[in-house]
Structures are given as structure tokens and as C-alpha cells.
């Protein structure tokens, strides 16, 4: 079993020789010395270690026996076992009567170091396997559904539960931009250690996807927001760079992960646009904007953008767009909007009338206000295009 390498062997030698007054050698399964308190012995084959490995038990070598064995000196040699398999040996140099009482201590210390290294390696392998699974889930292909379900079964993923995706995006300042990928990978390992039932994957140099799940029969309506708060607190504690965290919609089933992921991405994008200084975003706080973002292409989207495109043709378009954005942000409350813009209420009324004239919409009608709101959501920024727009229909047409 090839668990021991030179780095681990040196670690064993360094740690054990801090607590015992004798030289320590660490050998691989072939009896070759990988590390020693006497560096000149590294690379030699140790017959005493070979004997301990063959017998699978402690072998003591006195001065007489040492003269008959290649690369051996008086001392004690003990086999090292990890997960039930012998992977090497450790030796203590000195008269057996003097070093015997330290043998088991060194053996236990060495095996503990090797077991920790083996576990870390297994976790890293398991993490890569789980990460590949997550990437396939968020890129859901219906044809691969049986394979994904079988894969999930092996990993203990229950697709009958609600699947909930979080998108963590690091936002470092330019001076720390090169740390982002390393920080994402570190956070992924920390998350695996603290939340073993959660799946995670790196989806970009600054982005990590987290897939959580919960039982929909246990207060499902309240659970998503509570889980957002819990993950936000965990990331606040662990993350060393500025970040935003967005939560998608909770959905059941294999395809639910992909849907939740897409909604988390839209939530993050729209949330930053509306509240650039906010750190946490929830689909459930931005439901309508996220749903409308699915209409961003096609002839329907072109028609939905017409009202804002007409406003963008006006010389005062920036002022009118700011007025409209503020009006919607304050739930169409004119008094609060005027205060937010620091203008007189009459000035606001004039601007709203001008918006109505340009768009041909009646802002007293709920349906027209909803159409204008959708147009705002699908038309970020101020249009620079001078394309010909449909004429505003006259009254009675």
C-alpha cells in the first residue's frame, strides 16, 4: 500500500524526534529508507525493516544481529498499518533495551499522521467526484437523467427533497484578485468539512455553487429564507474576501437543481443591479424580476422594451429613467418618490405625465403600470440607439 512518501516520512521523523532522544528512520513497503534523523541513510535498504514487514510484527536487532544484516543498526523496527494494510515501517536506532519503551509511541504517532493523510486524500477524491456530479446537475440534460439519479443514489442525494442552490461570488478588490480562485477552493473544502451533506462545485475563478436540500413537508415556505441566513452566517465566518450570496428557487427533483441554479444566477444579477451594496439576495425577494428576465429574447421581449425605448428617445431620458426607477422602487408612492428625488410633488407629477405621453400608457391603470415595470426590468441603462420606434397610437385608435 503506497501511502508513505518522502514528505510524510520527513514529517514523522521531525515530530517523533522532538519527543524522544533517539534517531528515527521511516521506510516504505520495500524497506527503503525515505527519511531519517541521519540524512545520509536516506535511499538505503533496511534489512531490519524488511524483516518487520515480512513478519508483520516488531523486530528487535541487537549489535550481533546488526553485523549480519544489510543497512541495519541496533534498534527496534515496527510495521506501520493504515486501514488494515501494512504500508511501511518505522525504526528507532539504539540498544533494544533502551529504545523498546519508545517504539509503540513512535508507531502510534506515525500511523496517526498517515491515517490523517489518507483521509485527506480520500476527501479530496470524493470532493472531485461530488463536484463533477454538481456540474452535471446544473447543466441538466434530460437524456442523462437515469445516470444522474443513479449517481445521486451512490452519493446519498435524495431528489424527493427540495433542492436549493446558492451562488457564492467573490468580489475582491484589484489588489487581491489573484487570491480569488484559491479562496474558492479553500471555502469548498471548509464547507465539505462543516456541512458534509452539502454539495459544492467551483463554476468559475470567483464563483462557487452550493446545493442544499431539505424536507418539503417541514415548513417548506419558511425554510429557504432560514437556510439563506444560515449559509450567509457560515460564509461570513469562513470567507476572507468580499462576496455576495444569492439563493435560487427551491424545487423538487433532478431537474430542480438546474432550475434553482439558473434562478440563483438571475437573482444575483438583478439583485446587484437594484441594490449594488447589498450582500445577500433571495429569489423570493425578487420573484417577479427574475421571472420576467426569462422574457429577455424574442419578439415578446422587443415589444416589452418599446415603452422604455420611447423614453430613451427624449432629450431628458436620464432624468425620466431615474424618476421612473425611483417611483417603482418606492412602490409607486408619489410622496415618498418626491422626497427621495428631492423634488416638489408637482415636479414629479409633471415628469410622470411626460412619461405617460412618451409611452402612450395610462399610469392610473394597473395593467399599464405592470407593462411599464416589465419594460424597465428588461431595459437596463439608457438606450443610445436611434432606431425608428412605433408611433404612439392616438386616442380612439
UniProtKB/TrEMBL annotation:
Name of this protein: Helix-turn-helix domain-containing protein
Family annotation (InterPro entries): CdaR-like_regulators, CdaR_GGDEF, Diacid_rec, PucR_C-HTH_dom, PucR_C-HTH_sf
Domain of life per record: Bacteria
Similarity comment: Belongs to the CdaR family.
A Pfam cross-reference name: GGDEF_2
Residue span(s) of domain Putative sugar diacid recognition: 5-137
Residue ranges annotated for the PucR C-terminal helix-turn-helix domain, each copy included: 321-377
Domain CdaR GGDEF-like: 144-270
Amino acid at each position: 500500500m503506497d501511502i508513505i512518501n518522502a514528505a510524510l516520512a520527513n514529517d514523522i521523523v521531525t515530530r517523533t524526534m522532538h519527543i524522544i532522544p533517539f534517531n528515527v528512520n521511516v521506510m516504505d513497503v520495500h524497506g527503503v529508507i525515505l527519511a531519517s534523523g541521519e540524512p545520509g541513510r536516506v535511499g538505503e535498504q533496511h534489512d531490519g525493516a524488511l524483516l518487520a514487514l515480512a513478519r508483520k510484527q516488531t523486530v528487535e536487532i541487537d549489535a550481533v544481529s546488526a553485523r549480519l544484516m544489510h543497512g541495519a543498526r541496533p534498534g527496534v523496527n515496527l510495521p506501520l498499518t493504515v486501514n488494515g494494510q501494512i504500508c511501511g515501517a518505522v525504526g528507532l536506532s539504539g540498544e533494544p533495551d533502551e529504545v523498546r519503551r519508545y517504539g509503540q509511541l513512535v508507531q502510534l504517532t506515525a500511523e496517526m499522521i498517515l491515517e490523517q493523510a489518507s483521509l485527506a486524500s480520500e476527501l479530496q477524491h470524493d470532493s472531485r467526484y461530488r463536484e463533477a456530479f454538481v456540474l452535471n446537475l446544473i447543466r441538466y440534460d434530460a437524456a442523462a437523467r437515469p445516470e444522474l439519479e443513479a449517481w445521486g443514489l451512490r452519493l446519498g442525494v435524495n431528489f424527493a427533497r427540495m433542492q436549493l442552490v446558492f451562488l457564492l461570488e467573490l468580489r475582491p478588490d484589484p489588489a487581491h484578485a489573484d487570491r480569488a480562485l484559491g479562496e474558492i477552493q479553500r471555502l469548498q473544502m471548509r464547507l465539505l468539512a462543516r456541512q458534509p451533506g452539502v454539495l459544492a462545485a467551483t463554476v468559475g475563478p470567483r464563483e462557487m455553487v452550493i446545493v442544499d436540500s431539505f424536507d418539503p413537508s417541514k415548513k417548506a415556505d419558511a425554510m429557504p429564507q432560514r437556510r439563506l441566513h444560515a449559509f450567509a452566517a457560515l460564509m461570513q465566518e469562513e470567507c476572507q474576501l468580499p462576496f455576495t450570496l444569492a439563493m435560487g428557487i427551491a424545487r423538487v427533483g433532478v431537474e430542480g437543481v438546474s432550475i434553482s441554479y439558473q434562478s440563483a444566477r438571475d437573482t444575483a444579477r438583478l439583485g446587484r443591479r437594484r441594490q449594488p451594496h447589498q450582500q445577500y439576495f433571495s429569489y423570493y425577494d425578487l420573484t417577479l424580476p427574475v421571472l420576467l428576465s426569462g422574457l429577455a429574447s424574442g419578439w415578446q421581449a422587443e415589444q416589452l422594451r418599446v415603452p422604455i425605448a420611447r423614453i430613451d428617445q427624449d432629450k431628458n431620458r436620464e432624468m425620466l429613467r431615474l424618476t421612473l426607477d425611483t417611483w417603482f422602487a418606492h412602490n409607486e408612492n408619489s410622496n415618498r418618490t418626491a422626497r427621495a428625488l428631492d423634488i416638489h410633488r408637482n415636479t414629479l407629477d409633471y415628469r410622470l405625465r411626460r412619461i405617460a405621453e412618451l409611452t402612450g400608457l395610462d399610469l392610473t391603470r394597473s395593467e399599464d403600470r405592470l407593462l411599464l415595470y416589465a419594460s424597465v426590468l428588461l431595459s437596463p441603462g439608457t438606450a443610445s440607439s436611434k432606431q425608428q420606434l412605433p408611433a404612439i397610437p392616438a386616442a380612439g385608435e
